[in-house]
Amino acid sequence: MPSSAESGSVKDRAESEVLKKSAKGEAPILITMGEPAGIGPEVAMAAFDHFGGKIGAHPLKLVGDTAVFARHKDAVIATTARAARSPGKPDGANAAAVTQAIEIAVKACLNGEAAAIVTAPINKAVLNGTGFAFPGHTEFLAYLTGARRAVMMLASNTLRVVPLTIHLPIADVPKAVDKLAVFETAEIILTALRRDFGILNPRLAVAGLNPHAGEDGVLGDEDAAVIAPAIAALKARGFAVRGPLSADTLFHEEARKTYDAALCMYHDQALIPIKTLSFWDGVNVTLGLPIVRTSPDHGTAFDIAGTGKADARSMIAAVQMAADISDSRADVRNR
Question: Residue 26: what pLDDT?
C-alpha cells in the first residue's frame, strides 16, 4: 500500500488526468455486480430496467460475470475471473470476480472511458476470508485511485451526512477524532458540495463528539480541545461552518434547513438519522476520489436474495445521483 505522501501525489495526478479528458456526455455509467450471492445483481438489473438502459446521455453498463447478469448479457463488461450466482450462499471462489469488476470500472473511469461507477454491495467477511486487505469498498477505491483521504457521505434529498470515523468500536472513536481529520474531512465535504452538488456557498454543520457537545467540558473535553479549533481554522479559510453542535438537536426539520451537510464524529451518529429519514432512497457517495462513485445504502441481504423481495429504490437513487454528479463535474470543467 502506498504511503500518505505517495497516495496524495498519485491522487493529484489521477484527478488532473481525469479532468483533462473531454467530458463526453455519452460516457457510460458502470454498475458493478457486487457479491453474487446477495441482492446486488438483482437491484443492479432492476435499476438498468428502470432507466431503460440509459440515463440522460449516459448508457448503463453492467460489470461482472455474464452468467450473473444473464438476462442483460449484451450490456455486460465481462470479468475474466468467473463467478457463480447462488442466492443466499456466498462463496469465496467468487471473490476474484467481485474485486476485478471494481478494478475494471475504476480503471475505465480514470481513463475517461466511463462517467461514473455505481457499486453493488460486497460482503467484507467473504472477501477478507480470501485475503482481501481492505475494510471495505471505500478503502479499496481510495487505494485504486491513489486518493489520500476518501470520505463516505450518505445522501438523500432530505439529508447529507458524513461520519468522520466509520467502522470503529465506540471505545476507539475519541482517539481517532483529531484536528487534522476534522479539518481535512470538512474541506473535502465543502469542495464536493460545490463541485458535485452545485451548491455555490455550502454550509456545513459539525456535530460534537460528546452529549451536548461536551457541555463546556463537563461531559468531555474533545469538543472544545479538538473539534472547535478545527472549525475555527475552517472559518479562517472562509468556509461557512458551525459547531461543535449537540447531535440530539441537529437533525429535526428546522435544524436541517440551516446546513447542506452534517459532519458527524462516528458511524451511528450519522447513519441513524439518515436511515430513519431516507431508508429506501439513501445513497452512499465517496468523496475525495478523482472519479465519481455511488452505491446503494444497504448490504448484501443474503436472507432475501433470489426471493424477489429486494427493493431497488436505493440502487435507482444511486444511479441517478451518479449521473447528476458526473454532469455537475462536467459543467464545472466546461465553465
Answer: 86
Instruction: Answer yes or no: are the C-beta atoms of 47 and 34 closer than 8 Å.
Output: no
Query: Measuring CA to CA, which residue among 281, 284, 275, 273 is closest to residue 312?
Result: 281
3-class DSSP state of 153: strand
Domain with 202 in it: 158-277
Rg (CA), the chain: 20
DSSP 96: H
Residues 178 and 123 in one domain: no
User: Nearest-5° angle of CA 265, CA 227, CA 179?
Assistant: 95
What is the tens place of the pLDDT at every residue in 247-269?
999 999 999 999 999 999 999 99
Selection from 225, 227, 246, 221 nearest residue 183 by Cα: 227
CATH of the domain at 302: 3.40.718.10
Helix, coil or strand: residue 88: coil
146 with 110: CB under 8 angstroms?
no
Q: pTM for this one?
A: 0.88
CA dist., res. 35 & res. 121, Å (int): 6
Query: For residue 273, how many C-alpha atoms fall within 13 Å in the half-sphere facing its CB?
Result: 27
* Angle (nearest 5°) at CA 288 between 153 and 247: 35
